[in-house]
TrEMBL record:
Residues 2-241 form the Glutamine amidotransferase type-2 domain. This is Gamma-glutamyl-hercynylcysteine sulfoxide hydrolase. HAMAP family: EgtC. Catalyzes the hydrolysis of the gamma-glutamyl amide bond of hercynyl-gamma-L-glutamyl-L-cysteine sulfoxide to produce hercynylcysteine sulfoxide, a step in the biosynthesis pathway of ergothioneine.
Length: 241
């Protein structure tokens, strides 16, 4: 089980979200489950509308000696980060570590799709053979991202794009775990289908969506299974998938 989070709020050091909190993704890389197959952080630099920028590694997050210093000085008000536990049969290079990116979008997948290489063609539609051959990584997450990215490029809203990917994939693989997380720096879309998902509003300008809540921190709400969450800095909506 991977772990991931997306955050929209005031500009702050990446360390305040990823490495410093007592129940941070950094700590979740070894407890309560082991997520040692890579990690990634994507963020939108403040001020000029640039980004997103990604920092991804194929090593356990606790072994990266550069990360603490970088996370202490890099700042953003929009972040998506993940630690990875690889699905069997997937690649282990850093290209397989979330977040994946397309234009302004950042994407992560928490879960697994059994026999993802053999998904029926009508599930993967409208991906072409050429698109399948140019996947960023050999993994279920990269395939799901290609499916979602194709829909976003066609102009479909983010929640609709994720929901359609989940429905199609779950119809072919009912045992699949499909918690998807997507942001463009101003909005968050997320699905809960099989694994846990929580969100917290610190105030009217800040929201965090994460695999697990922070113990002893008030204000966390569990997203029901088989649900779609849509959030901005000021609003949160949840609807059935």
């Amino acid at each position: 089980m991977c772990r991931h989070l997306a955050h929209l709020g005031p500009t702050r050091p990446l360390a305040a979200l990823v490495t410093d909190p007592p129940h941070s993704l950094y700590r979740q890389s070894w407890t309560p489950t082991l997520n040692a197959d890579g990690f990634g952080i994507g963020w939108y630099p403040p001020g000029n509308g640039a980004g997103p920028v990604r920092y991804r590694r194929a090593v356990p997050i606790w072994t990266d000696a550069n990360l603490p210093g970088l996370a202490a000085v890099l700042r953003s008000g929009a972040v998506l980060a993940a630690v990875r536990s690889a699905t069997p049969g997937t690649s282990h290079d850093e290209a397989a570590a979330a977040p994946f990116a397309l234009g302004r979008w950042l994407f992560s997948h928490n879960g697994a799709v059994p026999r993802w290489e053999d998904l029926p063609a009508d599930t993967r539609e409208p991906l072409t053979p050429a698109e399948l051959l140019t996947l960023e990584a050999r993994s279920d997450s990269a395939l799901l991202w290609a499916m979602a990215g194709r829909r976003l490029t066609a102009g479909r809203p983010p929640g609709e794009a994720l929901a359609d990917v989940v429905r199609r994939t779950a119809a072919a693989r009912p045992e699949a775990r499909l918690n998807l997380l997507l942001t463009d720096g101003g909005t968050i879309a997320a699905t809960r289908h099989g694994d846990t998902l929580w969100y917290r509003r610190a105030d009217e300008t800040e929201v965090t969506v994460a695999s697990a809540p922070v113990p002893d921190e008030p204000g966390w709400h569990e997203v029901p299974d088989h649900s779609l969450l849509l959030a901005t800095r000021a609003t949160t909506e949840i609807e059935p998938l």
